[in-house]
Give the backbone structure.
Amino acid sequence: MAQVSLRQVTKVFPGGVVAVKDFNLGVESKEFVVIVGPSGCGKSTTLRMIAGLEEVTSGEIYIGDKLVNDVPPKDRNIAMVFQNYALYPHMNVYENLAFGLRLRGYTKAEINERVKEAARILGITHLLERRPKELSGGEKQRVAVGRAIVRKPLVFLFDEPLSNLDAKMRVQMRTELNKLHNRLQTTMIYVTHDQVEAMTLGSRIVVMKEGVIQQVGDPLTLYNRPVNKFVAGFIGTPPMNFVPGRIIKLNGKYFFDEGKFKVKILESMFEVLEKYEGKEVILGIRAEDIYDKFFTTHSSPENTIDVLVEIVEPMGSEIYLYLNTGKNSLIARVRGMVRPPQVSQRIEVVLDMNKVHFFDKDTEKAIV
Ligand SMILES: Nc1ncnc2c1ncn2[C@@H]1O[C@H](COP(=O)(O)OP(=O)(O)OP(=O)(O)O)[C@@H](O)[C@H]1O
Ligand SMILES: [Mg+2]
């Protein structure tokens, strides 16, 4: 049985806001699951319901094999780390770490052992005498995590714990959280609106939109096989390019017709796409699946398109090209080169038709 299991969980706030709708998820023991989605999609509400800080409107939550709907937060054997750390300002780090254990009646010796161990794991032993105001953001964050670790909970819940840190610190703490998870081997559920954080931390990712789960999967599945346009556009940087157009048939073959360009669809996709003949669909292609024609051996008139270069962004090892077909904009991520294309130049680029996605225009669901 899953360590944490949510079954048809729905949360409606007074006033009628449906924050979470029919949420089903089983988190396995020792798993690191990340819930990701835009602001307001119901991530914190989901986490707070698992923690018991928010009642469910309907559905069931199990921790271990126990139904916890009516179990108060302190008896759920979980520890939560919040975005704002919520440290006690008048206590030093040692006291902050010890406080929860003291409330639970642990002996002094046990408390001392647990606090010292957590401090060692997190590399904050030298900070134990300091007060929160004498700590950097990253150090405060470690203390907040330490307060969860000393409890030795069955499940850790993290609500955007890194969002108050600067970009460099976030990357560092991300690595540390990964290591921590490997070391503690405890179930973790982590909430963020940052898809990069989700991709790098989660063994499984839950993508939410407007209170509803869109897709659950490992990072590469979400990246390579998004079930709908929302997931396709949310996961990945730069976001996937979307181009509206029509499926047409020419000489027994199917093409995607954007208006300014036509590309031939893979024969293996014919069967699923034939019912869209004459209809509008959305083609999705990631920036790295568009090549400068000079750097690929896979070009043919049926996958090559003529575009205008609007912006060139050198990123070092690669270059982002902002292109215009005359109707739609595309971003291509191409290898760094000595003489990159220039703004206002017309170039030919190749779409890797093995990598394109098609979405239904009305439902936005992936067609193939
Ligand atoms: N106590 C509350 N009363 C009424 N509505 C609420 C309450 N708390 C949250 N909501 C609403 O529920 C929805 C989900 O909120 P939630 O805090 O779970 O979003 P979130 O995904 O964590 O967003 P963020 O990334 O901004 O933290 C939002 O529309 C929010 O306005
Ligand atoms: Mg939130």
Summary: Residues 13, 15, 17, 19, 37, 39-45, 193 surround adenosine-5'-triphosphate (ligand 1) (CB under 6 Å). The chain has nine helices and 20 strands.
